[in-house]
């Protein structure tokens, strides 16, 4: 691993641009003269449309176009949005009702797009939208996370989208029958609204032959093929770009109806058209996260070893299948179902439910935080019931021999969970907790300590693309298939290329997110970027070194194979020439060897990697007010080898803050009619800076064997660990009062009621 020993906390070169207001976000760069689009959205959660008359709106001042689903269909568009579909336990296909780009006959959630209005100004578009006549017969809304209720899609009786399973049910049942002890716990995982700092937006332009759509997404490739298909264009006639993006978190990974409608408007009008979401609009139309309830059961033998684990989950899909809605709480959840424990028999059953709410899809971790949350909550409960220290119960059950194949078929290559846990116990000063608790109590506060030991499986496309082009000005440009959403890719990937080639960092240009410039790419998601991009960049550098060496052998009049590259210079015995890579590129250019000036590679990592770690949270709860505060937080991660520890730590900070927000304050409330009551920042509580404590972070690396750099991926890990750590700490604080179960979010009202002995429903 010597070659990767150059890891260092190199500062982000893009920050100067971002901090001085020079970011190029989609709404900053829309073409001059672009028309403004707004969406008329459904004001009700469930209804049959009786009238949709846009004629008056079309005549309104400044209006250029109004599109309904009929207009899209009349233009020959395929209005059906893509969504992955599962196979049920009984072998049948899961319900796959159409999700139209604009409402088609029915309205199924508040905020569903109904019509697109394009005008000279936003105000004119808004005024025109008021003139649209939308009449409907309201239907009862199905909001509850349970089967039954008014049918939303005829294809899904009882509003059940799927009934999916995995694992060995019979072996698990046998383990439960033979168990010395069993422990069960029902755990809710509250719905969250993602609220990226930058809302969703796009613009589109049509030049008569090609469409260009710029949107703030997590990659351009899925959108390219979907848009070509929907608009009936060759892929060659579609260019998709992602400029700077202010946070995606899985929510921006999907294609959304607005992008297709805006593209069609640009094609119809032959003029650029732009759309930018407002905050409340985003809360109603961005895919939400989590929203599931799970019954989890553990079976133990007399030595406190887990012999069986099973879960039954009900999860919310919202009104339609969105891109990844179905696989998240099922296939992705299954990747880490049994966590870091050696569990011989396990199985899962998941029922997906349609409701008259906005779609629920990927959110930082997509299924893996949910799986770890459930497991680490029930492990914590088990420790209490078995009378063991929570760390001890985990230690007894840790997987110790690698490679290890889990009951759901994942093969963990390496890990050293006891070492990571020991490090965290020391860093968190677990030994001093009793004294800290006594201090808190002296001030009228409850104090709890919570542990989560998580593992993640990095996901997304294991293949990635890169191109390196040597430029006339004596530098090089790296083109990457991944997509920064603010993580610092520009710095990390240029620095990686610099380290591997000796090309000075400041001479390396960076290009991402343009389907015309990069052959293919997997975008950002599933903690994949650094591993996949570094892997393929390395493959590309190896090609460059080989090609340049062959070229140089001739120039130096030495044998091919005598030329060596030491990360900075090419050298060969018998030659005084020791050129750098940029110098070789110049030599090649002078000789007209254009073929040596552009290098492209595509490579696949053969195995996934499994970041893991321990989070300890300490929470103080004010008995008078019910306010819970996270007062101490410690993370020790095994991310394998890091190429920029500072940026990895930043990812952990952000991830923990997001998990802490879900645990402490974020609460989505729909009323019984399906109206979103928490649709502004006055009503929806995001975590603020003073909710987040100092986070102590360290690493205990066990390099992955799944990729040549020994990396493990760190983007989602903070969120995966934070939910259960904070929840177990709150549980620990309340246990002495006889409170046996409490679900997120731990709002003051909820905790205060619990402390008064009032039922949670009193909220
Ligand atoms: S939730 Mo992510 O972008 O895999």
Topology, element by element:
Layout: H1 15-19, E1 35-41, E2 47-53, H2 55-58, E3 63-67, H3 69-74, E4 106-107, E5 113-119, H4 122-130, E6 133-138, E7 160-167, H5 169-177, E8 181-189, E9 201-206, E10 211-215, H6 221-231, E11 238-241, H7 257-269, E12 273-276, H8 279-285, E13 292-300, E14 306-318, H9 325-334, E15 345-354, H10 368-386, H11 390-397, E16 404-405, E17 411-412, H12 417-427, H13 433-442, E18 445-455, E19 463-470, E20 476-480, H14 489-501, E21 508-512, H15 529-556, E22 563-565, E23 570-572, H16 581-590, E24 598-604, E25 612-622, E26 628-638, H17 645-664, E27 695-699, H18 717-734, H19 748-755
Parallel strand pairs: 1-12, 10-11, 14-15, 20-21, 26-27
Antiparallel strand pairs: 1-5, 2-4, 2-6, 3-5, 7-15, 8-13, 9-10, 9-12, 13-14, 16-17, 18-25, 19-20, 19-24, 22-23, 25-26
Helix pairs in contact: 9-10, 10-11, 10-18, 14-15, 15-16, 17-18
The protein binds dioxosulfidomolybdenum(VI) ion (SMO).
From the structure above, extract its key features.
763 residues; alpha+beta; seven-stranded mixed β-sheet; five-stranded mixed β-sheet; 19 helices; 27 strands; 29% helix; globular; binds dioxosulfidomolybdenum(VI) ion
Explain what the structure shows.
The protein has 763 residues and is α+β, with helices and mostly antiparallel strands. It contains 19 helices and 27 strands. The protein has a seven-stranded mixed β-sheet, with helices on both faces. A five-stranded mixed β-sheet has the order 7-15-14-13-8. The protein has a four-stranded mixed β-sheet with strand order 18-25-26-27, sandwiched between helices. The radius of gyration is 27 Å and the shape is globular. 55% of the residues are buried. Bound molecules: dioxosulfidomolybdenum(VI) ion. Dioxosulfidomolybdenum(VI) ion is lined by residues 218, 250, 253, 362-366, 525-526.
